[in-house]
Amino acid sequence: MNADVVIIGAGPAGIFTALEMLRRGSKKKIVLVEKGQPIERRVCPKSKTKQCVNCRPYCHITTGFSGAGAFSDGKLSLSCDVGGDLPTLIGEQLAQETIDYTDKIYLEFGADERIEGISNTAEIKEIRKRAIQAGLKLVDCPIRHLGTEKAQEIYRAIQDHLLANGVEILFGCQCENIIMEGDACKGVSISDGKTEREIFAAHTVIAAGRRGADWLERICAEHQIAHQPGTVDIGVRVEVRNEVMEHVNNVLYESKLIGYPKPFKNKVRTFCQNPGGFVSQENYDNDLAVVNGHSYKDLKSSNTNLAILCSHNFAEPFHQPIEYARKVGELTNMLGAGHILVQRYGDILDGKRTWEKELSRSNLRPTLPDAVAGDITSAMPYRTMMNILSFMQAVDHVVPGFASVETLLYSPELKFYSNCVKMDTDFNTNVKGLHCLGDSSGWTRGLMMASCMGVLMGRRLV
To answer: What are φ and ψ of residue 321, in 5° steps?
Structure first.
């Protein structure tokens, strides 16, 4: 098969590359290769079974059209201060202009016009003051909340638009490798599990998402694509009662706090806050179960959940940060017999595991019903665990009650985007005809910034 552009991965970066090319009037042949299924066929059976059944050959929550974005909480961060390192590559002004442009596209496809966290200036100042007193930095980023169920509707509309305008989407196909000819990329080899075939194209765009970061790292090593180990985030998903977070939820919706707690001073941050949300499980390759969080527009719980992530940057001679994080996850899964582990904050301080009976008589009930009560400290690296505990104590000064005895910590929460591909401002790698986008490239973290990278790639390809 021949094409002008072949895109690997139908997450936000890949989708918006094709979408922007169409919006610019391109007549080039675009082929989009996606390992998973169309969005209407992405169904997680857990809503009926009440526990993860380890779907094969992939998890429908992380794989399929729109990537993990379709089943996430669907929050668009509208500031270039949030979402990764793309502004350092292209400049803050262009990054912000592209966010504003991309946001309008989401609105065209049905996103909610309401923006969270842009009012109540006096209250924001008071929260910031408490954060400063606790040694933390507050990033008050405007948020457009799509909602998990609404995000699926929006991406379904985008999917239908791409198909109606001639974009060929190959579902159920996995990219095996890129096709090299000398120092240039000429396309990709793909497989549907039964047969392999090749797609030749002038431009190959890899936008494999967070799930594909490990695969892309291997491709970079095999073909001498310039890259370097980046940051890997290891942490927990914290869950508290809505009453604890009520003020911050009302004022900011999502409070992004950053700290560098003693004694190690690693960067620790909050991420993906879900008021009235639900803790969820995602499954990666080799049955690795990781924790995440969802927030629906209409369906609400009595709890708020958010991630606390500790950033790790490794020096020579270590070059396998993704594998390091994976091992932490595997060890945690081993302790939980393949399930997510949950432990009360107070039990961690007491040096004991949490028992199911203790959860059942708490004010705070887990929203992940099949999480296993246990001891996450038996698997979490000491440095990471100490950073998280110190950070939680600091957050407690900003949000009283956050670090209470009953606060729940779920593990593992892992973010696989540590492989950073070296590129110029036009997203060209050192391999001619090859471009890398989104979270798998190491330059973005989240829906909006990945979408923006796709928009800019689409313009350059036109």
So the answer is: -65, -35
Give the type of residue at 40. E
Residue with tokens 């370097």: 228
Rounded Cα distance between 16 and 48, Å, is 33
- Picking from 117, 441, 101, the residue whose alpha carbon sits closest to that of residue 273 is 117
Residue 404: which residues within 8 A CB-CB, separation 6 or more?
240, 244, 345, 346
d(CA 451, CA 443): 12
φ/ψ (deg, to 5) at 8:
-100, 110
**Three-state SS sequence of the chain:** CEEEEEEECCCHHHHHHHHHHHHCCCCCCEEEEECCCCHHHCCCCHHHHCCCCCCCCCCCCCCCCCHHHHHCCCEEECCCCCCECHHHHHCHHHHHHHHHHHHHHHHHCCCCCCCECCCCHHHHHHHHHHHHHCCCEEECCCEEECCHHHHHHHHHHHHHHHHHCCCEEEECCEEEEEEEECCEEEEEEEECCCCEEEEEEEEEEECCCHHHHHHHHHHHHHCCCCEEECCEEEEEEEEEEHHHHHHHHHHHCCCEEEECCCCCCCCEEEEEEECCCEEEEEEEHHHEEEEEEECCCCCCCCEEEEEEEEEECCCCCCCCHHHHHHHHHHHHHHHCCCCCEEEEHHHHHCCCCCCHHHHHCCCCCCCCCCCEECCHHHCCCHHHHHHHHHHHHHHHHHCCCCCCCCCEEEEEEEECCCEEECCCCCCCCCCECEEECHHHHCCECCHHHHHHHHHHHHHHHC
pLDDT digits (tens, 9 = 90+) for 247-296: 999 998 888 999 999 999 999 999 999 999 999 999 887 789 999 998 88
As a whole number of angstroms, the distance between CA 13 and CA 453 comes to 6
What is this structure's pTM?
0.85
Number of residues that make up the chain = 462
- Condensed to tens digits (0 to 9), the pLDDT of residues 390-413 reads 999 999 999 999 999 999 999 999
Q: How far apart are CA 184 and CA 179, in angstroms?
A: 9
Alpha carbon distance 445, 82 (integer Å): 8
Angle 12-23/447-461 helices, nearest 10 degrees?
A: 40
Q: Give pLDDT < 70 ranges for the chain.
A: 46-50, 53, 69-73, 120, 417-418
